[in-house]
Amino acid sequence: MRDGIYVGQAGIDGAENGGWLLGHFMPPGLDVRHSAEVEVKWGVHPAGDTRAEWVTGERRTALLVLVSGRFHVELRDRTVVLTRPGDYVVWGPGVDHSWLAPEPAVVLTVRWPSVAGYKVAAN
Question: What is the pLDDT of residues 66-78, one digit of tens each?
Answer without folding.
Answer: 999 999 999 999 9
